[in-house]
Amino acid sequence: MNFLYQTGIFIYAISIKVASFFNAKARQFLSGRRNWRKNLAEKIETNARYIWIHCASLGEFEQGRPLIEEIKKQFPEYRILLTFFSPSGYEIRKNYELADIVMYLPIDTRRNAKKFIQVVQPEKAFFIKYEYWHFYIDELKKRKIPLYIVSAIFRENQHFFKNNMLGKWYRNMLYKAKYFFVQNEKSAQLLQTIGINNFTVSGDTRFDRVAAIAKSAKEIPLVEKFKNNQPLLVAGSTWKPDEELLAAFINNHPKLKLVFAPHEVSETNMNKLEQLLKTTHIRFSKADKNDVARFQVLIIDSVGLLSSIYRYGNLAYIGGGFGVGIHNILEAATFGLPVIFGPKYENFKEAVDLKNLGGAFPVQNFNQLESTLNEFLADNSRLAEASVVCKNYVEKNIGATNLIIKKVFNN
Question: Are 33 and 92 a contacting pair, CB within 8 Å?
């Protein structure tokens, strides 16, 4: 199986090189890893104590961030090495101030893993949610460096739980981890079926993160002026299918204000979004608080504002549900915003939970979106009930980070 895995990694590396000729993210993937050995060796401080935290992308970073912040607060003697697999995570967080080193994770080969861990010599390693790289995990085990899987979530259809050779090979990676901090009871039960009992049902560290965001959310006077005491829908991390539905609604509902915060903020995407809108609209970068209230749609054409914008909303639409899956709904829920999203949400525990509780509302088409929004706009008590559900859900799930810190550092 190792040979097949190595072959798969090799093919993946070749495909990235080919894609780099016409894909910007593929180019970033390659250029960011170029000369990584030299760059890492130059940044590592001799005799410093390192903790390695690895995230696939930006979403996993938000789960790892509370852990980093608490380690820095309680154990300042440690240096933090933060790695990303995806450009969408690294490029946005490469200057994260609480990490001493931020870099791409080199491709998972035996040679790379051995060299990487030999140079860093971390005292502990944390992989966030679902990153399982065979050679890195194997090298950590060989060097007796404890690996903790944080905010892990497992499903029955994953390879780990299949009774075949591939399943056995994948399970072997899990057996090498020191401890698992899982999000729910279902994940714990699945681990037990394959003989793993070194776990705690800690919940999701993102709840701690979004609670902190809510407390420190900055005021944005321009957004407040834009809202002008009218109902406001905040559409966060939207993609084309989301934007088409929302534009079709807002074009015919003048009593609702809409903030668009697209996932892609390129000039090309901004232009496409503006073409969909038949009502008054303006970009955040061009808006003036003295007359912004006269527009119905405000388009956020920069990053880093969305989490604070939610504080001004009455409802939220979270993008991604017509693609591979929805983006972070908790940033909106922590402010008490009922959340609406597309049909691909069932792999996201918080979305399923909030749907069942009455705080989240999946839609499959325009008619369902229109019906859901009209219901909330016509009934303030219905909106208030769903708002309380969302806020209480976040508050009840805070505390995973402290549980992890106590288990790992105070045992």
Answer: no
Quick one: pLDDT at residue 76?
95
Q: 3-state SS of 224-291?
A: HHHHCCCCEEEEEEECHHHHHHHHHHHCCCCCCEEEEEECCCCHHHHHHHHHHCCCCEEEHHHCCCCC
Structure tokens given for 323: 């693609």
Alpha helices in 50-145 (DSSP H): 58-74, 87-93, 110-120, 134-142
Flag whether 281 is in a domain.
Answer: yes
Residue of 183, 120, 220 lying closest to 105 (CA atoms): 120
What pTM did the predictor assign?
Answer: 0.84
Number of domains the chain is built from: 2
What backbone phi and psi angles, to 5 degrees, belong to 36?
-65, -35
Rounded to 5°, angle at Cα 394 from 92 and 407: 80
pLDDT at 303: 84
**Pair 105, 85: CB distance under 8 Å:** yes
Asked whether residue 295 is assigned to any structural domain, the reply reads: yes
| pLDDT value of residue 1 | 78
The tokens of 68 are what? 């980093």
For 163, residues 6+ apart whose C-beta sits below 8 A from its C-beta are none
Mean pLDDT, consecutive 10-residue stretches, the chain (411 aa), reads 84 89 89 93 94 93 94 96 93 93 95 96 95 95 97 92 92 96 95 96 92 89 96 96 97 95 91 96 94 96 91 97 93 96 93 97 97 95 96 94 94 62
Written as six digits, the tokens of 80 are 């933090």
Q: Calculate the alpha carbon distances from 391 to 109, 214, 361, 382 in Å.
A: 44, 11, 15, 15
Quote the pLDDT of residue 184: 92
Strand partners, 235: 260, 317
CB 127 within 8 A of CB 147: yes
- Specify whether the CB–CB gap between 106 and 36 falls below 8 A: yes
The residues, ordered by sequence, that sit 6+ positions from 169 with a Cβ below 8 Å of its Cβ are 1, 5
- DSSP assignment letter at 300: -
Domain containing residue 290: CATH number: 3.40.50.2000
Give a yes or no: residue 344 inside a domain. yes
- Tokens for 260? 């668009």
Residue 267 and residue 207 in one domain? no
130 and 279 in a single domain? The answer is no
Q: Which two tokens stand for residue 112?
A: 């790379």
Hey, which residues does 284 pair with through a beta bridge?
none
CB 362 within 8 A of CB 345: yes
State how far the Cα of 374 lies from the Cα of 95, in Å rounded to an integer.
Answer: 42
First and final C-alpha spacing in the chain: 36
